[in-house]
Amino acid sequence: VDENVAEDMANLESTFKGIARRYRLINRIGEGTFSTVYKAEDLHYHQYKNDWDLEERDAARWSSRRAANRRKHPRYVAIKKIYVTSSPLRILNELDLLHDLRNSDSVCPLITAFRHQDQVVAILPYFQHHDFRDYFRAMTVSDIRLYFRSLFTALKAVHEHEILHRDIKPTNFLYHPDRARGVLVDFGLAERLGTDWQHCACNLSATQRRARLDHSEYAMQDQHAPPAYPNPKTDTRQPRRANRAGTRGFRAPEVLFKCTQQTCAIDMWSAGVILLTLLARRFPFFHSADDVDALLELTNIFGRKKMRETALLHGQIMETNIPSYSDNGHSLEKIVLWCTNRSAKDETGRRIHSLSPDEKEAVAFLERLLECDPAKRITAEEALRHPFLVAAGA
Ligand code: ADP
Ligand code: MG
């Protein structure tokens, strides 16, 4: 353990009253924007669950057995120290959602939580996993099927509870490739479906939406003429406010377009970005620094036409004049071939390389995840019944 880490752990032990008696800190395993996570041994854990029923005199005898047993079967936990800069409401939200999900398959359960003054720690079972960067390049399509079976099992449970995770990405899904099992962690940004909802045009029918746009002040007369944008200085409309929480590169188009009625479908998109990463063998796949950049990266793939339609879906206008972006974009199959250096063509312009049947099935599944319209995107439950994942169970 490096010196800084040791100092940090000693600091937690000395400032958080009583924690050292209950847990032996082993290492620091994660450091994020909102928390630090430590691996620790639970010193009170033992195999004999009924020891509170024991008589005083038996207890002493049992406690030495317990100590021996603990040495043989230590229980490890992850201690998530939530930064004091997080609002109490935010911390409560995370613990509350984890509590709701306590019996959900593939979701990391919450054992307990403690507060000392303004400091809160959540105690989770320690889950052994590998670093995504170490295994993602070596994953075969069969491995990928297993990965997503596990991830969508977790997401199905989360979504059944009408909870949006909002931050699906490899570091929040702790996966063990040999066991083909993972658990979903980090509900720090999660929210209940419907929180802060305000009407969004994506809930109208296509006809209603068109009628509304035709009457709107920035209706486009001609598809090719630049739209008349309102002057930002004189525009009196309230700026749109929508939840944008999440990690750049994993945000669904409706998050980028500030949809005010976001649904669990945003998590399915993020899972799609993971699948794209695995098939293209590039991590991170998207590099955008901000939301505008992110929209351009998507435009590069999906084309201007699709992005314009997607914007309109949420009552937004998107125009780009970057000549290198095509109107129709590229197929995901082509993107995967490009990224894996298999895009060579013969003299007649025919592609020499193509995807294996397995990969083709994966791309067909990917298309269902990276569907720009959230209403048409596959749900976690449907995903588990999709041929790509059904094959994993066999
Ligand atoms: P943050 O909000 O800081 O991202 P996370 O809950 O995502 O916090 O945890 C950060 C990291 O700590 C994870 O990416 C993972 O490496 C590690 N971690 C979190 N929970 C566990 C756990 N239960 N078992 C093992 N490692 C964990
Ligand atoms: Mg995290």
Q: In terms of topology, how is this protein built?
A:
Elements: H1 3-15, H2 19-22, E1 23-31, E2 35-42, H3 56-72, E3 76-82, H4 88-100, E4 112-116, E5 119-125, H5 132-135, H6 141-160, E6 163-164, E7 173-176, E8 181-184, E9 191-192, H7 206-215, H8 253-256, H9 265-280, H10 291-313, H11 332-339, H12 357-369, H13 380-385, H14 387-393
Antiparallel strand pairs: 1-2, 2-3, 3-5, 4-5, 6-9, 7-8
Helix pairs in contact: 6-9, 6-14, 9-12
The protein binds adenosine-5'-diphosphate (ADP) and magnesium ion.
Adenosine-5'-diphosphate is lined by residues 29-30, 32, 34-35, 37, 78, 80, 108, 124, 126-127, 171-172, 174, 185-186, 188.
Verbal overview:
InterPro entries: Kinase-like_dom_sf, Prot_kinase_dom, Ser/Thr_kinase_AS. This protein has helices at 3-15, 19-22, 56-72, 88-100, 132-135, 141-160, 206-215, 253-256, 265-280, 291-313, 332-339, 357-369, 380-385, 387-393; strands at 23-31, 35-42, 76-82, 112-116, 119-125, 163-164, 173-176, 181-184, 191-192. By secondary structure, it is α+β, with helices and mostly antiparallel strands. The strands form 3 sheets. Strands 1-2-3-5-4 form a 5-stranded antiparallel beta sheet. A two-stranded antiparallel ribbon has the order 6-9. Helix 6 runs antiparallel to helix 9, helix 6 packs across helix 14 (387-393) and helix 9 (265-280) packs antiparallel against helix 12. The longest helix has 23 residues, at 291-313. The model is unreliable at 47-53 and 217-223 (pLDDT under 50). The structure holds adenosine-5'-diphosphate and magnesium ion. Adenosine-5'-diphosphate is lined by residues 29-30, 32, 34-35, 37, 78, 80, 108, 124, 126-127, 171-172, 174, 185-186, 188.
